[in-house]
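[Automated response] Your request has been received and processed.

Submitted sequence:
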Amino acid sequence: MMTIPNILTLSRIALIPVFVILYYFQPVYSDTPTFTWINFLLTGAYAAISTTDYLDGYLARKLNMTSQLGAFLDPVADKLMVSTALILLVDFYPTDTHWYISVCALIIISREILVSALREWMSTIGQRSTINVLFIGKVKTFVQIFAILFLLYQQPFFGLPSFEIGVTLLLIATLLTLYSGFIYLKEGVKTFDS
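Generated structure:
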């Protein structure tokens, strides 16, 4: 049960509180040069969490260590990771001037809840395998992670505007979220009459 992939998944969940604590240290240091370091640590923590997302799945397949616990924990960890980061970003960027970040966060989190509920339904009727992860879903996750990383970083990235890059990627991730969510829903609806 405690395989390397599962340990990585659990470590991803354990890093989420560290990420949240670092986030709330930002206002303390925002007027000092230390802000850059807190900001860098915050982004690094999210990058570490995101890296384990890739590693646990890769190692589970490579080492043939897939398990029911891993299949349950991995999507839970993903949703906790993404939802926490998006909620914190909504908290950081004022909604009166950056309302579109709130809208994107609402769409992405709602889609995650919808797809989770749909997968649960499919499991209860024994058709879980008909709604596997799509390639478009993996692309969405990849774009989403980089959007969040740029929005968290807040400093110029090798002279490039992090905020503008982050917002653009977040909008793309939101469109991919809507599209992939529609595909999942379309597949799931087919089973409602069976």
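Summary generated for your ticket: The radius of gyration is 18 Å. The mean pLDDT is 83.
If you did not submit this request, please reply to this message.
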